[in-house]
Write a structure and sequence with these properties.
alpha+beta, 13% strand, binds FE2/S2 (inorganic) cluster, 157 residues, 2Fe-2S-bd_dom_sf, 5 strands, 5-stranded mixed sheet, 5 helices
Length: 157
């Protein structure tokens, strides 16, 4: 089947998509956007998180056909050209990245949190990121990064 959708502002078409194929596979293997990671492929880890029509989803759980006519934004689409988004910058500055496998999903999820709640409490950060697993960092640096990004976006720092 053919699937047509918009990703990061660009119209894309994928041909010969198998009915059981995931949106994650289409993004990574057909559209050339490998930022979203495939760590579990069963909705457990959050490393494949993308926006679908403005709502964060696990791309591994979305059938490619469900993306027909819809708008997707991936971690690659958060930066403004060469200028990183504040969340991406904060992850780098705070050392919130080790192997990096969880990072794209966490960045998208944190980006969404700060859009919805510009000054999130620690409890709100923990709750928002509860579906994103990281086996390297112990999460403290990730929390630091989200606090920093929120403060910067709110103009506090
Ligand atoms: S790869 Fe999608 S949730 Fe883990
Ligand atoms: S940095 Fe390795 S899983 Fe999070």
């Amino acid at each position: 089947m053919r699937v047509t959708f918009t990703v990061n502002g660009r119209r894309e078409t994928a041909d010969d998509v198998w009915e059981g194929e995931s949106l994650l596979y289409v993004l990574r293997e057909r559209v050339g956007l490998p930022g979203s990671k495939n760590a579990c492929e069963q909705g457990e880890c959050g490393s494949c998180t993308v926006y679908l029509d403005g709502v964060t989803v696990c791309a591994c759980l979305v059938a490619a056909g469900q993306a027909e006519g819809r708008e997707i934004r991936t971690v690659e689409g958060l930066a403004d050209g060469d200028r990183l988004d504040a969340v991406q910058e904060a992850f780098v500055e705070c050392g919130a990245v080790q192997c990096g496998f969880c990072t794209p999903g966490l960045v998208v999820q944190a980006h969404d949190l700060i859009e919805r709640i510009p000054r999130p409490s620690d409890a709100e950060i923990r709750e928002a990121l509860a579906g994103n697993l990281c086996r390297c960092t112990g999460y403290e640096k990730i929390l630091d990064a989200v606090r920093l990004a929120a403060a910067r976006k709110a103009g506090d720092r």
